[in-house]
Automatic annotation (TrEMBL):
Pfam families: Ldh_2 (PF02615). Homodimer. The gene is dlgD. NAD(+) binds at I168, T169, M170, V171, D172, M173, S174, W224, K225, G304, H305, E306. It comes from the Bacteria. Keywords: Cytoplasm, NAD, Oxidoreductase. It comes from Chelonobacter oris. Its EC number is 1.1.1.130. It is an enzyme of class 1 (oxidoreductase). The active site is at H44 (proton donor). GO terms for molecular function: 3-dehydro-L-gulonate 2-dehydrogenase activity; NAD+ binding. One of its GO terms (cellular component) is cytoplasm. It is found in: Cytoplasm. This is 2,3-diketo-L-gulonate reductase. InterPro entries: Diketo_gul_Rdtase, Mal/L-sulf/L-lact_DH-like_ah, Mal/L-sulf/L-lact_DH-like_NADP, Mal/L-sulfo/L-lacto_DH-like_sf, Malate/L-lactate_DH-like.
Amino acid sequence: MRVSYSELKQEFKRVLLARGVVEETAEACAEMFADTTQAGAYSHGVNRFPRFIQQLEKGDIDPTAKATKVLSLGAIEQWDAHQAIGNLTAKEMMDRAMALADQHGIGVVALKNANHWMRGGGYGWQAAEKGYIGVCWTNSIAVMPPWGAKECRIGTNPLIIAIPSNPITMVDMSCSMYSYGMLEVNRLAGRQTFVDAGFDDDGNLTKDPATIERNKRLLPMGYWKGSGLSIVLDMIATLLSNGLSVAEVTEEKDDEYCVSQVFIAIEIDRLIDGKTKDEKLEKIMDYVKTAERADPNVEVRLPGHEFTTILADNRENGIPVDDSVWAKLKSL
Ligand SMILES: NC(=O)C1=CN([C@@H]2O[C@H](COP(=O)(O)OP(=O)(O)OC[C@H]3O[C@@H](n4cnc5c(N)ncnc54)[C@H](O)[C@@H]3O)[C@@H](O)[C@H]2O)C=CC1
Ligand SMILES: O=C(O)C(=O)C(=O)[C@H](O)[C@@H](O)CO
């Protein structure tokens, strides 16, 4: 089914208000969930909302909390989220990184005690829309085995790098080949994943999303490379924020909260003039897109460019929502 933006946002807001979230916060949070869904990130928009509400009801998320600054070192700042609503603090921290970049050329904000930010790409996009290079990542609870193991000891720790090209080019990727959110999207659509997504109980590679959602033997993106990337991203986020690592979140908390995040904005306008910047980006994009196609019917695309098309379609025709997800939302 397709749902209008306003109907979707209204549903999110209704549920939040019913849980005692104050009007202003409910409005801002509902808007971010609706924007994320409309942008095409269904996995971390409407699909993930019931899980977010579960954590709100449990008290892992404190809707009254506000992030506070802990330490300032010029271009680098440490903040404490105090378990506030994850998408709202993440937006605020990327705004802060951009303000620091205006002063110093680069702004780095590290946040501890944060909650799940949903679609990490939203914050990279936020920076790129304003002309900055946006980089951010988060750690998580252990939900993936490191390369060579079958027990979960590392996070999916998505890394986002967004470039202010036209259209915006953005890598927004979990360190696993598939995020749990995208496994769910594939399962709900009744399909196997396009490439291997994890291992079955016998240790064979599998494309079956339900098997991996159950046994959590998620395949790291790029095999040992995604495993290594996840580990170093966790180390940096932990050190910069002085917050909890994947190991600590997993051992000390009963669920995924109090994670550590990093937000970086780079101001490029003083490094390269606007015309040269645009020409160079155009050249890079054209060079990639005009590579001889493997399949003549499938164009070569740049990461993130799909969202510009999806957003336009969803604005015109309404937002696709899985029937079972909509029924769940209405029941909250
Ligand atoms: N703890 C957390 O906060 C987590 C959040 N997430 C979020 O879940 C969302 C989904 O993450 P993933 O499943 O890893 O994303 P994905 O696998 O759908 O996409 C990863 C990247 O590949 C690009 N891409 C996909 N297909 C492509 C193609 N054919 N050609 C060129 N580029 C292509 C996408 O634009 C994107 O930049 C993200 O917003 C992520 O931030 C994911 C894991 C954990
Ligand atoms: O993988 C995901 O999707 C995701 O968003 C996550 O936060 C974690 O990896 C996992 O905690 C999902 O249960």
